[in-house]
Please model this.
Amino acid sequence: MAKTIIITGANGNLGTAVVKKFLSENYKVLAVDQHDNHLAFATGNPLFAWQAINLASEKESEAFIQKSVNDHKQVHGGLFLAGGFAMGGFEDTDGETIKKMFSLNFETAYYMARPLFLHMLQQDYGRIVFVGARPALQPEAGKDMIAYALSKSLLFKLADLLNKQAKGKNVVASVIVPSTIDTSVNRESMPKANPGDWVKAEQIAEVLEFVCSDKGLPIREAVYKIYNNA
Model:
């Protein structure tokens, strides 16, 4: 039976690579994003469905998870790739910036993860993956992006808490930590960098598929640092 996977941020550079990978491995993909203009390759695929959801709305997120469970009986994985980025040290980071990053990086994941995690506990199976960030782990890297680093750091703690609640069950929350992703935008903004040192979206997609596949069954409480040479 094909596993059903929810992917948020599905229309982005990473999201499209992940959607392609999971469809190629015959997962049912429930893609979530505000737009689908980069997902034309999946149009007509019977394993693919897209829906626009306001991930900052707890009500909309819960309704989407409930509908997904009703339609598919079981949702096996949630890959919460949606998020945002902002530069700024303490002198540039006010409360509104903190709130914006908290909403984009934490609330969008939490509102989806909470009802999905409870469903997974009932099914005694599930894989949830959050996208962390190196600046959340390394203060030197995070000091010039305070709001971003703080909001991402909460995802590591959330994964820990979920894993403690799910101990003894086949339900696991993991965090991936990519270095700079090789995208056209990053190449343009960092012309002097060597993109060969960065990580490709397709490589991250491979890791995510491993996590959700039967190959990843014995893994618990994992943080995957996907840095390449960056």
